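User: Reviewer 2 asked us to show a designed sequence for the structure in our supplementary figure. I'm pasting the structure tokens here. Could you produce the per-position amino acids so we can include them in the response letter?
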């Protein structure tokens, strides 16, 4: 591993910072000319969609029965299903599972209670063997105090097949207008935090409109329960979780009520892992893992990266110490160390192999924390902090597990958590500890819907490596492009120092990519990412939409912004 001393590193950083300041392009939002994202408080949503089924959801804010009708036309003259659900209390939504649907069909649904009603739509996926094309969106990290989330205002109008909410769907452990406490302790408090994100503010309710416009998939990260918790660790390792005889944090009351509120406020089916007795941390526990196919265009695999993980290894506090960095890397390769739990990891490998053998072109793996190596800084909470499992997974994709499958083609990891939009190649270590690129695989980290942006946070955290003049220069930059270039160049200096791949998809041969617009790295904006597969060519186009970041309390001017294209590129399949 190549290392440089701190003086050399700071000298390079100064040069990179000066180069970043030369970028004059301004990427800004423009005034909204559409009221399609206004919404109201009559919520409906659909999710967990498959070729023949869907979960429907409604929040009438009153107890009693809710009738769900599904039709093949928007006027509901051809109703194909009518199902009654119930709400036990005014703050508990209703959910029903609907089956016997037809693949590749546009459906419309409505939910009616005593005093409220609402309607939405969804599409069922095409069957295997069909190349129909696909368009979906993804994002995560939505802090309630930053609602009503104008960064996703345009998503409902993009004719999406589905949208993935990649964890941190709330920030339960942070103060917000509905709950000033930073440590919720009751089920009703967790429910308040979910409701907050689905409530109209300043004339907008973008999440409610998006969830009504298309089916969604959702998983958790940490803030649905508590910051950076490790569900597979013993409760004694984390003083925030009280316990008596529980063996794992995912068996404690606090975890249980956090997951219950998440389950109630998202259109996800109640599923549980089987009791195999081979992995007690996951046996019989709630199952957020999903595997869905969308024709032969794509497979979607949604992971739970939080509920079954081991406790984190100690973080690196001195990036300038080669010994500290090396010790961190070694600790992440402890045998048996896991983020996913053995059952979920095995299911992931099997489903990747199944998708490859089935002739599916693109395999999207949704994991809440990034899998690319982004330097040891705060890496203990990312997949980088679980190096042995990460390495095994990427090696399996490169070489194929089981071996009869061979290389698994066109794998795209889709993640969130770090509040910035990054697009990176992937490497793993072979048996000689030599870094190897994973052919045809890369990662897309989506920007946050709205939560403390990556760029300012990272620059502040790494201020010890920057001079006062460099920090002042960064703060004086007036455009998103200039700030994003400064951030990318600074981080690339750190990555070079520790021997990790640089940010972006430039100058590498493992992915056949063409950049059409913007920058591969965006760290000063909020937004979401769109993925579109061309039905004929199977070319994947990745588009990051966003608006400039705004501070808490700045929602009123921000709601007038429409998301703009910040990054767009296309990838040819292998």
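Assistant: Here is a per-position design you can include in the supplement:
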């Amino acid at each position: 591993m190549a290392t440089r001393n701190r003086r050399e590193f700071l000298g390079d950083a100064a040069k990179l910072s000066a180069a970043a300041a030369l970028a004059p392009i301004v990427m800004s939002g423009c005034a909204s000319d559409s009221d399609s994202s206004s919404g109201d408080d009559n919520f409906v949503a659909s999710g967990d969609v498959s070729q023949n089924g869907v979960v429907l959801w409604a929040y009438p804010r009153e107890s009693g029965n809710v009738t769900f009708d599904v039709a093949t036309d928007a006027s509901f003259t051809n109703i194909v299903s009518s199902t009654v659900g119930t709400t036990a209390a005014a703050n508990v939504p209703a959910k029903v599972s609907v089956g016997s649907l037809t693949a590749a069909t546009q459906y419309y649904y409505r939910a009616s209670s005593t005093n409220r009603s609402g309607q939405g739509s969804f599409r069922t996926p095409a069957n295997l063997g069909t190349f129909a094309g696909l368009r979906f969106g993804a994002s995560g990290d939505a802090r309630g105090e930053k609602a009503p989330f104008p960064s996703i205002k345009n998503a409902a109008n993009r004719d999406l097949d589905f949208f993935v909410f990649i964890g941190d769907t709330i920030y339960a452990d942070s103060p917000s207008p509905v709950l000033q406490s930073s440590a919720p302790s009751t089920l009703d408090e967790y429910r308040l935090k979910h409701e907050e994100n689905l409530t109209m503010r300043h004339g907008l309710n973008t999440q409610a409109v998006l969830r009504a416009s298309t089916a969604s998939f959702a998983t958790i990260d940490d803030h649905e329960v508590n910051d950076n918790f490790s569900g597979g660790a013993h409760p004694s390792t984390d003083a925030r979780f009280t316990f008596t005889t529980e063996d794992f944090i995912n068996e404690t009351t606090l975890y249980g009520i956090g997951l219950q509120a998440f389950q109630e406020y998202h259109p996800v089916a109640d599923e549980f892992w089987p009791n195999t007795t081979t992995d007690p941390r996951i046996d019989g526990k709630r199952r957020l893992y999903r595997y869905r196919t969308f024709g032969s265009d794509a497979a979607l695999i949604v992971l739970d990266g939080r509920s079954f993980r081991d406790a984190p290894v100690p973080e690196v506090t001195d990036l300038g110490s080669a010994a500290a960095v090396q010790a961190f890397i070694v600790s992440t390769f402890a045998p048996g160390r896991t983020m996913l739990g053995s059952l979920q990891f095995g299911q992931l490998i099997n489903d990747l192999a199944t998708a490859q053998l089935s002739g599916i072109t693109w395999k999207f793996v949704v994991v809440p924390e990034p899998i690319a190596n982004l330097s040891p800084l705060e890496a203990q909470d990312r997949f980088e902090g679980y190096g042995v499992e990460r390495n095994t997974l990427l090696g399996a994709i490169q070489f194929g597990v089981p071996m009869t499958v061979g290389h698994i083609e066109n794998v795209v990891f889709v993640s969130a958590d770090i509040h910035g939009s990054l697009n990176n190649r992937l490497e793993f270590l072979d048996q000689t500890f030599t870094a190897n690129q994973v052919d045809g695989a890369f990662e897309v980290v989506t920007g946050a819907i709205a939560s403390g942006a990556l760029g300012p946070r990272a620059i502040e955290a790494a201020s010890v490596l920057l001079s006062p003049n460099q920090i002042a220069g960064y703060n004086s930059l007036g455009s998103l492009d200039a700030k994003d270039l400064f951030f990318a160049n600074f981080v690339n200096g750190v990555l070079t120092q520790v021997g990790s791949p640089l940010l972006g998809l430039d100058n590498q041969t493992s992915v056949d990519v063409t950049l059409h617009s913007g920058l591969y790295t965006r760290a000063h904006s909020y937004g979401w990412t769109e993925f579109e597969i061309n039905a004929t060519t199977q070319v994947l186009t990745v588009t990051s939409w966003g608006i400039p970041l705004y501070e808490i309390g700045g929602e009123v001017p921000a709601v007038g912004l429409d998301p703009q294209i910040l990054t767009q590129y296309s990838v040819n399949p292998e």
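For the response letter, you might also mention the following. The radius of gyration is 23 Å. Residues 291 and 535 are 21 Å apart (CA to CA).
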